[in-house]
């Protein structure tokens, strides 16, 4: 049997621990999630039957602040996956110096099989089950795979009903009209774009000589593909759960996005006004997309997409992890040995949690920012922390992932020490 996602995720920590001096207490504490909740959610279906769904919420660590993390709706959600995602959130918030700990949630469900009303009952039922576990000062959910602002709005509303008070800061990623932040819907992609724009010039790369393939055409992947396309990169391939398309001459991302929005699928089209034509292209599987001979590969779907099985097929020179955990630890070592530059999830996709933090701040202060303010602050944070991790990787001669973990570990270690160290208690 293959090892768990969480065991694999923890390996990254083991590598980084060699480069940072931490108390034994800190190392021991970071090995375990603080608390893990498993809930059963009874939902009345439209045909009158009752279905019970399994849900999870894991708070990994809250030393640096209330825990924070998205909620995923997917048939493969498991406690192991949610724990791993909560672990990554802990490091992501530390890396970005956001005053939050890490958490994650999920429901094992295929949301595409539910009606809108069933989805609403499920989302409200999930909050009923975890209401005592979350809160604006405790743990703050947000969107992730197959959850969106509408679902976040239902979750906030249900929490408010239970607590008989208005607490917009209990959930982020809400619709803007009920306390969401401008720019949250595009934040993950915008943050990743700032990271890419900051790092590729260090390798003397310009957008117009850089080809890109993006796996996953959802909130994060489609928006990033469009930002890259606008900046002059040649986006030659994109995919969703059904498969992908590849066109050597480059794809017209805005046309494909409009098509996907209207038809729930992707098609290699180019539109001028309302006239659309199919462009020359080939159909790909997701496996084939990962093996394309491109400069930049962006996994923006799910974890464990590049493993020991297919890592030697990867031909990209740079990989920017927009998805959480798309590369397993065995594949990571092989990519490094092959000289392929991997930029880690806990930095690249941190724009989402950064603007979630901005949303929480706005909810609590009651003062709302313009889109320009949000994006300026996001850019400042992403560039500052990217530069710091880049410098650390050069100083220590380690890959960017190890450098990011070292950096996050230092902040977590300092916060844990501030609450009392072994030396303090033993030596007085
Ligand atoms: P989403 O639900 O908006 O989109 C997911 C996309 O992945 C869809 O296009 C879907 O068709 C595709 N997909 C699903 N299964 C696939 C498969 N087996 N192969 C290829 N494509 C597949 O989700 P999202 O918010 O864009 O999240 C994508 C990734 O980014 C996840 O790993 C998530 O954890 C990560 N992430 C998201 C955010 C955020 O704010 N939304 C923040 C940080 C990280």
Provide a quick synopsis of the model.
The protein is 43% helix and 19% strand. It is built from 15 helices and 14 strands.
Protein architecture, described:
The chain has helices spanning 5-17, 24-29, 79-95, 116-130, 149-163, 187-199, 219-230, 253-263, 286-290, 329-337, 345-348, 351-365, 371-396, 400-417, 422-427; strands at 35-44, 50-61, 67-74, 101-108, 139-143, 211-215, 234-240, 243-246, 269-272, 275-278, 282-284, 296-299, 318-320, 341-343. With 428 residues, the protein is α/β, with parallel strands linked by helices. It has 2 domains: 33-178, Leucine Dehydrogenase, chain A, domain 1 (Rossmann fold), CATH 3.40.50.10860; 181-428, NAD(P)-binding Rossmann-like Domain (Rossmann fold), CATH 3.40.50.720. A 7-stranded mixed sheet has the order 11-8-7-6-12-13-14. It has a 5-stranded mixed sheet with strand order 1-2-4-3-5. α3 links the parallel β3 and β4 (101-108). α3 crosses α14, α6 (187-199) crosses α7 and α13 packs across α14. The mean pLDDT is 96. The structure holds nicotinamide-adenine-dinucleotide. Residues 143-146, 188, 215-221, 239-241, 286, 300-302, 322-324, 349, 352 line the site of nicotinamide-adenine-dinucleotide.
